Amino acid sequence: MRNKKVKASILIIGNEILSGRTQDLNVAFLSKWLNQNCGISIEEVRVIPDIEKKIIKNVVDLSKNFNYVFTTGGIGPTHDDITAKSISKAFNLKYGFHKEAYKILETYYGKIKFNDGRKKMAKMPTMSKLIYNPSSAAPGFKIKNVFCLPGVPLILQSMIGNCKKYLVKGSKTLSVSINLKTVESKIAKELEQLQKKYKKNLEIGSYPFFRLGIVGVSIVLSSSNKKKIKLCKMEILKMVAKKKLNLFKS
pTM here? Predict the structure, then answer.
């Protein structure tokens, strides 16, 4: 399985993200962590509001089309935290207190301070596997191929390592950048030809930039095959020399 591509998606749940009140920081972290530690590539990201029907629809759809789904947000103690209940409905599973999660939270807060809001964080599909939380005790959970994580970045980051034991690893995506002092139109045809040549093994991205008063293009080669990246890079450098273009070194 290590040489196979393992694909995942991220479902960001929260009105605060859509309204702009909160800036998402989890996508970049999850994408990088999953690739570097597990060889899992994020292929799609969706942002949806705290609406049960939308959560159910998107969870079911993503679960069918990707090896793994990572949700962020909506598993806290307030009325609008409906992710756990919605996911239970998505898979027609019993929703209620998870015995281990309840015990963890009761121990953490103490019986007197363990109020209804905090108890709610122990509610999830009852057959879930827990994702332990070393920061604030309230666990995330895994059900089928869906991993439910909190929206708070620092808490999510402290928990992500506890997902690793549930994940089947794939091939890491490697990347190399070539920065040129040019514009995209001057190299578009050549890059298109190279992408057709390497379409099964490698992705070529072209990204314009403006740095230190210089207009340029960053060509990014991405693949799980190191040899293909090296070969493609050599061809691009030959093209650069032929066109008498200059490399940009920051």
Answer: 0.89
